[in-house]
Sequence to fold (446 residues):
Amino acid sequence: MTPLDFVVSLALISVAAGVLGSLVGLGGGVVIVPVLTIFYGVNIRLAIGASIVSVIATSSGAAAAYVRERMTNLRAGMFLEVATTTGALSGAYLATLLPERFLFAFFGVVLAYSSVITYRKRHEDQLLAVSNDRIANYFNLHGSYYDEAEGREITYKVSGTKLGLVLMYIAGLVSALLGIGSGALKVPAMDGAMHLPMKVSTATSNFMIGVTAAASAGVYFIRGQIDPIIAAPVAAGVLLGATFGARVLGRITSRTIRLLFVGVLVVISLEMLQKGLFP
Amino acid sequence: MMTRQSPGPDPQKNVTPEGDLQVSGRHRNLSPAQVAAMEEKIRKIEFAISLVLRVGVILSVSVIAIGLGVMFYHHGDYTSITGHASYKTLTSRSTPFPHSLGQLRRSLVHGDGRGIVVLGVFLLILTPILRVAVGVVSFFYEKDVPMALVTLFVLVVLIASFFLAGL
Fold:
């Protein structure tokens, strides 16, 4: 395969990665890392660097399309970023202390569990009419959005901010340590623990993963993990795909998004378990 | 986006079905005229954020595309569909590419395609940071001090992460 074939084929795969990544709020890395390592035989460290780039591309590409739709709860996202960026910063320096295999196995189990939980309550969003969460009330993290699939305005209240913050800190830590899996914890945290609607959760996760990835991008760059010939087609393809995915998100039902999310989560958790148990 | 969910412009969101104000951290009672003025401001902020994002994204993609073009122009053997040149030599760990600001500057001075691509990726990495920065300004503009401080904290951590990385 010549460099041109490589760039063109990777760009096309990246478009698909961007569409899927923006719909489920996990970023393009979910597709990019296995494709690069298994199909193209690229070193895992360079694949993770490309994953960071693809996550930022998903985030910014999707955001440009969401802006007028109020799908992203930016207040909640920004509030939770306090925990995520702190986690990402500490994770980048803990990387040498914790055994990677243990982390992969541990998060494989965590994600398998959260995919089961998400699947069991796939039928509807568990929205709250009133919230007694003092933090959520103080920062007014509640919101509303217009659901195109249901054809109505949906108002929701946020609760469980403390549990949310803890989960987000762990999500930031994992993102910095393993380069993947940050959105996989963020979406269940918002959808499950904090009672945000599923589509708001994936859209807000899309916003957050970009900021979290930016917090560890500097470290990846200095370590020489961002290879331009891989990053270029990934960034361009994912940006295009994410813009498209974000445009169609409104028209898809929450149930479909949740099932899609569960499918992707199962694949990631199997991947992580494999890396942890049979490297 | 962020701004529409703020307490100021939409007082209804703080009101329960019975019409009582909910127990919330802060309350602001605005007249209809003030609400309208606030919404106008918010529309402007939304427009600014979407503009910043679009310009950032389009700029970074253009720079990356130019970089790829320059790289293929300088290395004619890369562009053939079939041939001896393999991408593996480019993605192997021994192939050098800029991974510090000094190297990036040098490679840009030489008009190296790889350096231009890295510059484009850098612009892409800057877009979420810029978005947080715009968030800080707009929350202060809305006089939403708690959220403005939260956002400022995130911005400081982000900037610190680049300094701690040794850039």
Observations:
- Strands of chain A lie at 143-147, 152-156.
- The first helix of chain A runs from residue 3 to 24.
